[in-house]
């Protein structure tokens, strides 16, 4: 704890308008407030927001600023301050937030991945349900019913999704495919046929990264093997689905897929694996659609330098994940936070946020003219496909399952022991709630 406090004080000194006094044992850490916001905070009621995006120089930060601008225009008497540690990524499982929650002095709202990632907070009694906000704002009329069903924990919705990302996307190099007279694979059989041809040409068929990327790849294999409906039963902990022969089939498929991947996969993160496709060193990569933002950020041109389709065997199925905002139980500015959450769910805010971040709205009434080529495709797919929640990104499972799931996939990628992999997965299903 001493080390944590020292690190926090050092960071806070960068903000001259902030109080840099170290937190005591009896008081919560002093929130970090940007100087430009602090001037307005004294005259207005504020919403205290915790998001690691605020500390980044990235599309996430720019998207959050656009969202907040919508809120301030809708509510000129309200403002936002940030409790932020300058981290990275959409998740918020860091020590500072947990300290605040343990001391029962939470921010008014914080970012989580929508769905089962919120389970631990719900069990600890740290979130208020937002089902009534959904109904009052008629969000249940503009978001897919299956999404609303999969957002629920114990019959309630605990966060407002600001966006949707897709997990099951196959990115491929169109130049390689054109030069070798190949079509993007729709089925797993298609994939193996394409992979064999690329291998014969001396091209790595599938670029794969380590740990996170392996777990990400395997959830698409599970979806392709089970289909959307039974996959949902699987991730809901249905013992019949975990005992089904299709689990062994999915594991055997994963083993075969890895035979066509890069031998240095344990040394690459997902960005490095995706870069292999851009560089022409690999033909394909399975990764979420945040890769689109990475590619565009490097100046790549859609359908010239890279192209996309659903992961093999998952055509017509959309594996979703979502960044979302919560209402903390005991929020100091509860009503102002509710107004902020209403803004988060609005079409205006979702369009402002998502066309910058590279994701798509959770609403199905987006202004499509604002979005790039990939996003327009994804918006239509989200509207028409069967929905299935992602394991690796918190929609289908909490950390209690996701961690042993990831360990099991990584171990399997190293030893290719199919029986041990199946046993490890089945041992973890008690954590699916």
Question: How would you explain this protein's 3D organization?
Answer:
- The protein has 433 residues and is an alpha/beta fold.
- The protein folds into 2 domains: 2-164 and 324-380, Periplasmic binding protein-like II (D-Maltodextrin-Binding Protein, domain 2, 3-Layer(aba) Sandwich); 166-320 and 390-431, Periplasmic binding protein-like II (D-Maltodextrin-Binding Protein, domain 2, 3-Layer(aba) Sandwich), CATH 3.40.190.10.
- It has 20 helices and 12 strands.
- The chain has helices spanning 2-12, 35-41, 59-74, 95-102, 119-123, 131-136, 145-151, 174-179, 188-200, 212-226, 228-235, 239-243, 245-258, 270-278, 290-297, 334-345, 347-357, 373-384, 399-415, 418-428; strands spanning 45-50, 78-82, 109-113, 160-161, 165-166, 169-172, 204-207, 282-286, 307-310, 317-321, 323-325, 386-389.
- Helix 3 (59-74) runs antiparallel to helix 17 (347-357).
- The chain is globular.
- The model is unreliable at 1-41 and 88-93 (pLDDT under 50).
SSE topology:
Layout: H1 2-12, H2 35-41, E1 45-50, H3 59-74, E2 78-82, H4 95-102, E3 109-113, H5 119-123, H6 131-136, H7 145-151, E4 160-161, E5 165-166, E6 169-172, H8 174-179, H9 188-200, E7 204-207, H10 212-226, H11 228-235, H12 239-243, H13 245-258, H14 270-278, E8 282-286, H15 290-297, E9 307-310, E10 317-321, E11 323-325, H16 334-345, H17 347-357, H18 373-384, E12 386-389, H19 399-415, H20 418-428
Parallel strand pairs: 1-2, 1-3, 7-8, 10-12
Antiparallel strand pairs: 3-11, 4-11, 5-10, 6-8, 6-9
